[in-house]
């Protein structure tokens, strides 16, 4: 690295760490705000679910005029509060005054004794948490009643109960723990890395370009005996540092928060589907960061070029704000079912990195795609950096009014 570039980088770095706003966006937000959000949302969701579970729901009993046995058993359930029937039960459920309603056929008891099929209907508010919980005790009662009736009929006919279960089907996990973890986290982790990578360098890029225009320090900086290419490269390295640091701190704090939340909020749950213990492969994480680095360079250079083109910090933020949506869209697209790597998608910026990171986290290394994506990302980064250098050399851009 040229000494001039290092001097510019050191100057911008010192200015950044002296600025409370920069420190807040680089350190406070990823280290403190993200864990607080995870713990706060996790604790709030856990309390809400526990409260809904503990509630004794009001369930309206409909019909069953000639089925006293079933209606009496439902009224005796300690997990629900049975209330008399009214004609407007659908409105009451929609208004959350009643959580659910169960309609029992009038001759249900007699039909059950005769072996004739009948349908019990449970009315609920689909998508409403407490309504869904209120249907569980009713469904459990009728499932138990059905099992008892099946057992009775089999016994009367001298048929063993085992005839209903001639064999068992069990799911057995064969994937390694790191693959199970990658399958669970591989969809969201690349998205978070890309998001943090972009947002981490946004404020420094605006402050070191459009901000200097507003403060009137750009002219003083241009009068220094430093080539403009060195000036822009020094500023670029500072934006890249902020981007990488924000990403690393955010993921570290989120990982720590996830482990703490899993231990304290999920009761020490440490197994994934099929009973496989969760584990994270450190070399895969290193490989993911290596693949994201050219993307971080691309983001940093792009943000620097856009902020440099702007007349003021407010204008720069109005450009970079909507650009966040453009960046997030390809990352979200990688989460769509059936979205797999192909030679064409390997050349699409952001989307290609997100897709290959999912594969790497799962322990699958497609070296052909990795090489193609890494080289294309480096090319895009070089073009963005070249655009930033070109803009910094133009007087019409530096002194736009």
Radius of gyration: 31 Å
When the domains are counted, the total is 2
Tally of helical segments: 17
- What is the string of helix and strand elements? HHEHEHEHEHHHHHHHHHHHH
What global shape is seen? elongated
Largest sheet: 4 strands, mixed
Mean pLDDT over the full residue set: 82
Q: What share of residues is helical?
A: 55-70%
As a percent range, the share of strand residues is: under 5%
SS content category: mainly alpha
Low-confidence stretches: 266-277
Strand order of the largest sheet: 2-1-3-4
* Straight-line distance between termini: 34 Å
Tell me how many strands there are. 4
Task: Give a quick summary of the entry.
With 401 residues, the chain is mainly alpha-helical. The protein has helices at 3-18, 20-54, 68-75, 89-94, 108-114, 129-156, 177-185, 189-200, 202-208, 210-215, 218-222, 228-264, 282-309, 313-333, 351-361, 367-392, 395-398, and strands at 58-63, 81-83, 100-104, 121-124.
């Amino acid at each position: 690295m040229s000494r001039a570039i290092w001097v510019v980088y050191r100057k911008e770095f010192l200015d950044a760490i002296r600025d409370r706003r920069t420190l807040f966006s680089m350190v406070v937000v990823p280290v403190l705000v993200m864990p607080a959000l995870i713990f706060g949302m996790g604790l709030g969701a856990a309390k809400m679910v526990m409260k809904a579970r503990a509630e004794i729901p009001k369930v309206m009993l409909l019909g069953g005029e000639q089925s006293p046995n079933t209606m009496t058993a439902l009224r005796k359930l300690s997990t629900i509060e049975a209330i008399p029937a009214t004609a407007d039960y659908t409105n009451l459920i929609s208004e959350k005054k009643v959580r659910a309603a169960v309609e029992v056929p009038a001759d249900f008891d007699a039909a059950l004794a005769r072996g004739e099929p009948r349908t019990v209907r449970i009315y609920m508010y689909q998508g409403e948490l407490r309504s869904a919980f209120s249907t569980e005790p009713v469904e459990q009662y009728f499932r138990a009643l059905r099992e008892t009736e099946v057992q009775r009929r089999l016994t009367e006919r001298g048929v063993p109960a085992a005839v209903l279960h001639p064999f068992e089907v069990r799911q057995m996990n064969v994937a390694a723990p790191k693959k199970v973890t990658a399958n669970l986290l591989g969809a969201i982790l690349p998205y978070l890395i890309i998001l943090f990578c972009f947002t981490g360098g946004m404020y420094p890029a605006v402050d070191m370009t459009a901000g200097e225009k507003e403060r009137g320090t750009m002219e003083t900086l241009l009068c220094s005996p430093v080539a403009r290419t060195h000036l822009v490269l020094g500023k670029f390295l500072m934006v890249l540092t902020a981007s990488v640091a924000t990403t690393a701190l955010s993921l570290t704090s989120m990982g720590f928060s996830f482990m703490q939340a899993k231990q304290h909020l999920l009761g020490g749950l440490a197994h994934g589907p099929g009973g496989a213990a969760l584990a994270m492969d450190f070399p895969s994480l290193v490989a993911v960061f290596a693949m994201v680095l050219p993307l971080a360079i691309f983001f940093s250079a792009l943000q620097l070029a856009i902020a440099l083109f702007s007349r003021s910090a407010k204008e720069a933020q109005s450009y970079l704000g909507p650009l966040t949506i453009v960046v997030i869209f390809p990352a979200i697209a990688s989460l769509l079912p059936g979205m797999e790597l192909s030679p064409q998608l390997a050349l699409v910026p952001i989307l290609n990195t997100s897709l290959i990171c999912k594969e790497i986290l799962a322990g699958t290394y497609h070296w052909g795609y990795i090489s193609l994506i890494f080289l294309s990302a480096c090319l895009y980064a070089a073009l963005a950096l070249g655009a930033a250098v070109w803009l910094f050399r133009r007087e019409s851009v530096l002194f736009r009014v």
